[in-house]
Amino acid sequence: MMEVGSAEMAPGFAESCRREYLNQNPRDGRPTVSAVMTSFNKRDDVAKNLDALRRQTVRFDEIIVVDNHSSDGTQAMIRERYPEVTFIEMHHSGYGACETFNIGFGTASGDYVAILDDDVVLPPEWVERMLEKFASEPETTGVISSRVREPEMPDWYWNDPSVATERYMSTFRGCASLARRDVLERAGYYDDRFFIYGNERDLSCRILNEGFRILQYPDVIVDHGTPFGMKKSPRSLYYHVRNLWLYLFKNVSWWNILKLFAGVFLKPFSRKKATTDAVGTIGFFGTVRGTKRGLWICVKATCAAFWNLPYCLKRRRVCRHPDFRLPLQ
What is the pLDDT of residues 146-171, one digit of tens each? Predict the structure, then answer.
């Protein structure tokens, strides 16, 4: 009989044991994993996404799709082709991404929750490798964020050491990350008031304030269908500006807010590349210039943010965690 630990006696024995453990029934010890995805009028992308979830070397124990009342046949496609999916359809399309994700988070029962956009494609070993990474991390690690590859992503960004290096971050990529469910529950999910954009950074501050950390794990690469940088549209510009203010009012010291905006005003005169931690706002000034009435939209969004100031101050808790970084420094 082969002794335990004698992997040298049979090449590949340790690897087969590892895979057997990772694929065992959840009630036999493997942590359970729920996938949470929100969708809106991206039928073909959702199908590619769900096909990739089926191909995982370690299966998802639960797949939850919250659809924001799509009009392109997404609902019928999921019900017909993916009966294993827990499908939640909203009654109208006016819900924000924050609210629909929160419904998915509240429905999830897994030990871990995969936070996924509808237009990502996970590599086959995504669950396996993310679980392995969590197993090697201390208990203080609450979220692990994949490296994300997007159309139109410039080489300077992709090759930047801060993107290609494993490190602890002040935020996570909301299109492809794995989080401990208990950490999400303690932090309180996304703030519905954000509606869309910037919600990950706000939630990250609350995760850090609870004493947890967010790890960037560049060894696992996920393809994201949304083009790189900030969308050039009035809606995107409005919510990015408004939500930046909400985030600052809730989480950042007044002194750091002053430093941030001093940097913003000086940025057009600086030769320094955009900070890689602020991927969602890269191209902000180009968006303002390229959007019709861009400056007026910024003023309107700022006024809306100050209207929400009492709401933010009531929930204000300055983030002083060592991993915290300003989004545009």
Answer: 999 999 999 999 999 999 999 999 99
Q: Find out whether 168 and 214 touch, Cβ atoms under 8 Å.
A: yes
> What is d(CA 105, CA 81) in angstroms, rounded to the nearest whole number?
23
301, two tokens: 């969004």
Kindly give, in sequence order, each residue whose CB lies less than 8 Å from that of residue 101, ignoring residues fewer than 6 positions away. Answer: 36, 38, 66, 115, 189, 190
Choices 3.90.180.10, 3.40.1550.10, 1.10.3720.10, 3.90.550.10: CATH for 11-224: 3.90.550.10
CB 213 within 8 A of CB 188: no
Using the 8-state DSSP alphabet, how is residue 225 labeled?
S
Q: What is the pLDDT of residues 270-329, one digit of tens each?
A: 555 555 555 556 667 777 777 888 899 999 999 999 999 999 999 999 999 999 998 764
Tokens of 87: 């499908």
How far is residue 168's CA from residue 170's CA, in Å, rounded to a whole number?
7
| CA proximity to 108, closest of 13, 20, 181 | 181
Boundaries of every domain in the chain: 11-224, 234-314
Report pLDDT digits (tens) over 181-229: 999 999 999 999 999 999 999 999 999 999 999 999 999 999 999 999 8
Structure tokens at 309: 């100031």
DSSP state of 23: T
Helix (H, G, I), strand (E, B) or coil at 149: strand
Going by their DSSP bridges, the two strands 86-89 and 141-149 should be labelled as unpaired
